[in-house]
Design goal:
alpha+beta; 8-stranded antiparallel beta sheet; 12 helices; 8 strands; about 15% strand
């Protein structure tokens, strides 16, 4: 049978904490541009089932429009900007940081493009403005997906396909909308789980949230503040976090495989540009 978005989630899971639980309204700890986020629990199942841990670790889930403004995606815009500048006869920047130089915008604006490259110059200008947040990164009335489509052109189609197939980067994971009511939707939009942004909270924080409702949350939150969970003060004034979903095993195992591979890979230092060029010349 064909796999659809409905095959990703188990709704309102019961029982104790489990790997793959998706909570809404969790603290972001300032790691992403939102105070509260949905989060997917990645603490090992045996630790949770046997109460071997006093903490729960989760990865934040952000809507695709937020992801497109984060460093993990801006590298794509930087790559396009650098390659486009080279095609327009300008010096290709050595690094993504060079694209943040405001002088490049002036230089590119004053450049007289070769015939047939006017559109490329316009898209390159858009890329630099997007990177430099010139005139606001996303103009009023436009979504980041619309801006990125204009910048990348047909390349955006390939990027979208790789995002949805989870082959774009090894440290992110695409999650489709859960199509639940807004009041209890943990993944209301096409979203990305950020596997490098691990967040850990005490287990009793989620225990209190799970046992609470709106009527007694204020009392429970006061008890959490007494236990020195000061970050509760600013992000959970009225409603507790809610465990709304659980990622099904077929997708959870894939996500955890990617997560583990990030942290068990030892890697090696890269050669500097001079040594690399010399070695390539000798081959």
């Amino acid at each position: 049978m064909p796999v659809t978005e409905k095959d990703f989630y188990e709704l309102f899971p019961d029982g104790y904490h489990a790997t793959g639980d998706i909570w809404m309204g969790l603290p972001s700890m300032g790691l992403v541009p939102a105070t509260r986020v949905s989060g997917l629990v990645v603490t090992p199942a045996c630790d949770l089932a046997n109460c071997k841990t006093e903490t729960v670790t989760y990865v934040p889930i952000v809507p695709i429009n937020i992801f497109l403004q984060m460093p993990e995606f801006l590298v794509e815009v930087s790559r396009f900007g650098g390659e486009s500048m080279e095609k327009l006869g300008m010096k290709k920047p050595r690094s993504a940081n060079d694209l943040l130089d405001p002088a490049l915008l002036i230089q590119l604006t004053e450049l007289a493009p070769a015939k047939g490259k006017e559109e490329l110059q316009t898209r390159c200008l858009m890329a630099l403005k997007y990177l430099q947040k010139e005139d606001q990164r996303v103009p009023a009335g436009k979504r980041p997906t619309e801006i990125i489509r204009e910048i990348l052109g047909s390349g955006w189609i390939k990027v979208k396909e790789r995002l949805v197939r989870n082959s774009y980067r090894s440290d992110i994971y695409y999650l489709p909308p859960d199509y639940q009511h807004a009041d209890w939707s943990a993944v209301p939009l096409h979203s990305i789980a950020l596997l490098r942004y691990l967040i850990t909270v005490p287990t009793y924080f989620l225990d209190e949230a799970h046992a609470a409702d709106v009527r007694d949350w204020e009392h429970r939150r006061s008890r959490l503040l007494e236990r020195q969970l000061h970050w509760c003060h600013g992000c959970h004034e009225t409603t507790p976090p809610l465990r709304a979903l659980r990622l099904k095993d077929a997708f959870l195992s894939d996500l955890l495989t990617k997560l583990v591979s990030i942290y068990v890979r030892l890697g090696a230092p890269d050669l500097d540009h001079t040594s690399l060029a010399r070695i390539e010349g000798e081959l």
